[in-house]
Amino acid sequence: MDGNSLKWYPGHIAKARRKIREQLSKINILVEVLDARAPISSDSGIFNKIQGKQIIYVVNKCDLIEDSYLKEIKKHFSGNKDVIFLSAKRSKNMKEILNRIKTYSKGKTSNLSKFGFKNTIVHVMIAGMPNVGKTEIIKKISGRKKLQVANRPGVTRNQQWISFENIRIMDTPGVLYPDFEDDDVVKKLAFLNIVDPARIGYEIVFEFIYNNLSQLERNIICENYRILETDIEFEIFLEKISEKTGIKGNENIASRVFSDYNKGCFKQIVMDRLNEDKS
Ligand SMILES: Nc1nc2c(ncn2[C@@H]2O[C@H](COP(=O)(O)OP(=O)(O)O)[C@@H](O)[C@H]2O)c(=O)[nH]1
Ligand SMILES: [Mg+2]
């Protein structure tokens, strides 16, 4: 990629990472949210070297993948991480995250109550890359409908506490890894809206994604736009989508495909191929 590629790691993300670290001493349970379509590449690593705290990984947006891939992710993580699978948008499996927080906080609160502390509050921090659904998850488990979510990175700009029952949850702005140098990973994350695709260019990102799809995956997109030809070059492919949708201009056409992908039109297409990672 050209010299512009560093623009996707803006200063406010470095600040967000620093602020998360500053708060850690107050927190009992850490939750990192991952995107189910890229459960490895969407790990920000923010809690990697932390010891002595309970860390829960939440694989969110499971409604955007197929059951067979969900099984693969479960197998991939089995045994090494404390992982929960859910879809915040569809309110699927939300109880499990609350149950897990309550289970982990039980030991803590009963210990403190021995020393006369009443109504002990459990402090939970939710972190992860931008746009993975951190705020949506907090909305669903807290019942706070007014929290702001948006399908673009960078909406939660400041840390905020949300309290309910005996739980205080800190929502945090999205973070990326600090040594983010692999342009291919950046493009994958841009296709998921984790890195703002407009910063790189929709067409540039989509060309990379398209060129890395299998024939089967290309066919899935073709079918969605009722394109009969298969095995076509990227440029021709954009022209065909334009013919079928009436959208003009390569940026706009690519942007439409992004939006359809993020609505769940191509659930078979995921950004991390787990079987290949093992080889
Ligand atoms: N399809 C799908 N979309 C989700 C899910 N959870 C969150 N979203 C959407 O993803 C976008 C980002 O959510 P948000 O909570 O603002 O992400 P944050 O930046 O991590 O706080 C919003 O458009 C949400 O509605 C989910 O489980 N499935
Ligand atoms: Mg947010």
From TrEMBL:
**Per the database entry, which stretches of residues form a coiled coil?**
none
Name one cellular component (GO) term: cytoplasm
Question: What Gene3D superfamilies does the database record attribute to this sequence?
Answer: 1.10.1580.10, P-loop containing nucleotide triphosphate hydrolases
Query: Which Pfam families did the record assign?
Result: MMR_HSR1 (PF01926)
How far does the signal peptide extend, from start to end residue?
none
Question: Which residues participate in GTP binding?
Answer: 60-63, 174
| One MF term in the entry's GO annotations | GTP binding
- Recorded source organism is Muiribacterium halophilum
Family classification = Belongs to the TRAFAC class YlqF/YawG GTPase family. MTG1 subfamily.
* Bilayer-spanning residue ranges: none
Which InterPro entries does the protein's record reference?
Answer: GTP-bd, GTP-bd_ortho_bundle_sf, GTP-bd_ribosome_bgen, GTPase_MTG1, P-loop_NTPase
Q: Which SUPFAM superfamilies match?
A: P-loop containing nucleoside triphosphate hydrolases (SSF52540)
Subcellular location(s) of the protein: Cytoplasm
Q: Which NCBIfam families match?
A: GTPase_YlqF
Example GO BP: translation
Give the G domain ranges. Answer: 123-192
What is the recorded function of this protein according to its Swiss-Prot or TrEMBL entry? Required for a late step of 50S ribosomal subunit assembly. Has GTPase activity.
CDD domains hit by this protein: YlqF (cd01856)
Record keywords, A-Z = Cytoplasm, GTP-binding, Nucleotide-binding
Q: What is its main location?
A: cytoplasm
Q: What is this protein called?
A: Ribosome biogenesis GTPase A
